[in-house]
Amino acid sequence: MKPRPFDYLRPDTVEEAVAALAAHGEAARVLAGGQSLMAMLNLRLIEPAVLIDIARVPELADIREMSGAIEIGAAVTQNRLMAWPGLAEKLPLLAAALPFVGHFQTRNKGTVCGSVAHADPSSEIPLVLAMLGGEVVLRSRRGTRTLLASAFQRGMLSTAREPDELITAVRFPVQRQRRVAFREVARRHGDFAIVAVAAVADGGRVRIGVGGVADRPATRDIAMDADLGDAVNALAWELEGYEDIHATARMRRDILRRIAPQVVDEALRCVA
Amino acid sequence: MRRVDRSQRATISITLNGRQVSAEAEPRMLLSDFLRHSLGATGTHVGCEHGVCGCCTVLIDGAAVRSCLTLAVQAEGKAVTTVESLAGADGRLNALQQAFKNNHALQCGFCTPGILMSFTDFLGRNPTPSEAEIVEVLSGHLCRCTGYAGIVAAVLEVSGSKDNAEKRSV
Ligand code: FES
Ligand code: FES
Fold first, then answer.
1. Can you say how many angstroms the Cα of residue A99 is from the centroid of all Cα atoms in its chain?
2. Which of A6, A72, A81, B41 is the most buried (most CB within 10 A)?
3. What is the pLDDT of residue A1?
């Protein structure tokens, strides 16, 4: 199908983008890579009056090293981040997860921040951001604020972004831990995960992150001497799972129980 | 700031396969429709129109993307490369196309233009991929006819080296 008509704005600066959002608020949608948004427009699941295309704003095009974190601007594509030379060293969990994000062809255009903004419960990038305790930088005419990933993502496709706010960047804390693993189950490689599991081992505990089971990414720290099977089972019941055309809630819990121990095992086997 | 109102038809210029071209488009016009209907470049096919099948894949500034998930106005001023650019002026197939022919990598051919463009980008970055890497790129496309094996064989053939046989992993 084709999108319904909308006005198209292509600001040259963040200031212009933020002014456009202040003027149009809820009637507007921000377009960056469009790999989720354009599909929703074509299917007429959303009908914004205004599209604000930020893909060419130079200020949003950088991957910057800050003290202790890597800041990724809102126009940076997933493939550009994958090709960033510091990735495996500074953000090994993200390096492990990115190959699962969409397909080669969608990563050429899809942005890192766009996937955080879309807040699909099964998406890989929001899961990694939650696992590492990363932040989302929001800017509006009223000022700039920074939210922890856990405060930003509120539920299924829902976030704490106000209608006049632009996500200008996300920040991933540089990782000390080297023992990481990521795995997911999907119908076809690159499709949305039915269940995604990440693990980071650190000293006497392992943190696991789960996407695709609850309405947002869930993380849990488990002591190394605890019974992993019991802990994962308890987590599966707690997250409950949701049902859609891809899987029942029960199947989601089952996949979690099966793959989480494998992912933890894989993380532990990484050379520290 | 570039602004095009919903009812306005803006003149959009792109470089299509090395030639400057332009045509009018409303903001909501998809690049796939712009290429096919406004510019008459019907080599790019449209399957699902929501980013699943990959038929509509073209290169924008050298990167393979889905033209159905791109607005014509987003491609303004950019270099767009489509399947029409691959064969020579005399109609001679390029090496990738010839390898598809040799390996029966197409039957109805509906999915083929997109797959050719994906591998045009990918082989430019990674000229001697492993079979697993080829399969991964191919996962961004649907083909209802071939069962994919011929396509993988074609890309292995064109990426040349015998080393590929050793790299085989699936
Ligand atoms: S037509 Fe674009 S992906 Fe199917
Ligand atoms: S050759 Fe017919 S769909 Fe691929």
1. 13
2. A72
3. 84
Model confidence pLDDT, tens digit, residues B34-73 = 999 999 999 999 999 999 999 999 999 999 999 999 999 9
Predicted confidence at residue A190, as pLDDT, reads 81
Per CB-CB distance under 8 Å, the chain A contacts of B51 are: 35, 38-39, 106
Of B30, B66, B71, the CB nearest to A105: B66
Residue A182 φ then ψ, to 5°:
-145, 140
Q: How much of chain B, in percent, has pLDDT values that exceed 90?
A: 94
**A-chain residues within 8 Å CB-CB of B68?**
38, 42
Q: Which residues of chain A have pLDDT under 70?
A: 272
Which amino acid would we find at residue B25? A
Query: Looking at the domain that runs over B95-169, which CATH code has it been given?
Result: 1.10.150.120
CA of A198 to the centre of ligand 1 (A): 30
A242 contact partners, CB below 8 Å, separation of at least 6: A121, A156, A213, A214, A215, A249, A252
Q: Chain A: nearest CA to B56, how far in angstroms?
A: 11
Angle between helices A228-239 and A249-269 (to 10 degrees): 140
* pLDDT of B76 over the 70 cut: yes
Length of chain B: 170
Tell me how crowded residue A164 is: count the other CB atoms within 10 A of its CB.
20
What does the pLDDT read at residue A272? 56
Q: Which domains does chain A have, with CATH numbers?
A: 7-53 (3.30.43.10), 60-173 (3.30.465.10), 179-269 (3.30.390.50)
Provide the pLDDT for residue B117. Answer: 98
Touching check for B147 and chain A: CB below 8 Å? no
Joined tokens for residue A147: 């939210």
Contact A124, A2 (CB under 8 A): no
Is the pTM value of this prediction over 0.90?
yes
The closest alpha carbon to A34, from A136, A131, A110, belongs to A110
> What is the value of ipTM here, to two decimals?
0.93
- Verify whether the Cβ–Cβ distance A8 to B71 is below 8 Å: yes
**SS3 state at B40:** coil
Point out the ligand 2 atom lying closest to the alpha carbon of residue B115. 4
CATH number of B6-84: 3.10.20.30
Domain extents in chain B: 6-84, 95-169
Residue-wise pLDDT tens digits, B101-149: 999 999 999 999 999 999 999 999 999 999 999 999 999 999 999 999 9
Token pair listed for A160: 């704490």
